[in-house]
Amino acid sequence: MQKRLVLDKKQISIILDRFCYQLIENHDNFENTVLLGLQPRGIMVLDMLVERLEQISGVKVPSGYLDATFHRDDFRRRNNPLKANETKINFLIENQKVVLVDDVLFKGRSVRAAMDAMIAFGRPKKVELMVLIDRKYTRDYPIKPDYFGRQVNTLESQYVSVEWAAKGFDENAIWITEEKEVKS
Residues in domain Phosphoribosyltransferase (predicted)? Predict the structure, then answer.
């Protein structure tokens, strides 16, 4: 199987630090800002980001996990039903600036569903999107990230594989592969 490295452990670390400084510049002391990691894969990025933000700024930013499974437009069209993940938000987002955090932006369907799901927690003042990888030319919806680590050009048949050491891989890395790999 052909595999091309997009980001290694060091590059991911640099991008996460850059995200922190961008957020610090754009969100005054995080007084009206919350971060939401999109389940299931965006929460890994969120957790690392929140930890670094607290180390760099000394501010504990409200954060949570958002599952949009039942808001997806393909929920009932799949042969195998999707498994819902935990939504863990213990605050209202009414009049807050919300930063949605995910690992890869592909079609935009998950982000669209997340925006629907987040309304249950209030009407945000503003919504921004942060992703490690932006697959530029693959959108079904007019969605683009406010913050991205790397933009890549990929074919529909290719897959962006995000590997986290915390999930049993050798180290954090992001690859483009010809098919989806499954870690046993």
Answer: 7-163
User: How is the chain split into domains, by residue range?
Assistant: 3-71+84-177
The tens digit of pLDDT for each residue in 116-132 reads 999 999 999 999 999 99
Q: Is 88 exposed, middle or buried (0-12, 13-18, 19+ CB in 10 A)?
A: middle
pTM for this prediction = 0.91
How would you classify residue 108: left for phi > 0, otherwise alpha for psi between -120 and 50, otherwise beta?
left
For helices 9-26 and 42-57, give the axis angle rounded to 10 degrees: 60
Q: What is the largest CA-CA distance in the chain?
A: 48
Q: Under CATH, to which class is 3-71+84-177 assigned? A: alpha beta
What span, in angstroms and rounded, lies between the C-alpha atoms of 34 and 100?
Answer: 9
20-44: pLDDT as tens digits = 999 999 998 899 999 999 999 999 9
Alpha-carbon 7 to chain mean position: 16
Cα separation of 98 and 92, whole Å?
Answer: 11
Q: Are 89 and 124 in contact (CB under 8 A)?
A: no
